[in-house]
């Protein structure tokens, strides 16, 4: 779960950075920043959902 939260937080920070840089007039952003902003929040959210489901299944058994 901590990994999922960390990845999601880094992804959200990358999204904020993209918006700030775009508002500052930068139109040609690095590819790595776009990839982080696109995929890390989804990966973090997915890992978080998997962790919660696994934890709830462990409590039932």
Structural topology:
Blueprint: H1 2-23, H2 31-60
How would you portray this structure in words?
- With 61 residues, the chain is mainly alpha-helical.
- The protein has one domain.
- Helices cover 85% and strands 0% of the residues.
Main beta-sheet strand count, sense and barrel state? none
Mean pLDDT: 92
Q: In whole angstroms, how far apart are the ends? A: 20 Å
Percent helix range: over 70%
Question: Which regions contain 5 or more consecutive residues with pLDDT less than 50?
Answer: none
Radius of gyration: 15 Å
Structural class: mainly alpha
Transmembrane segments: 7-25, 31-53
Keywords: Membrane, Transmembrane, Transmembrane helix
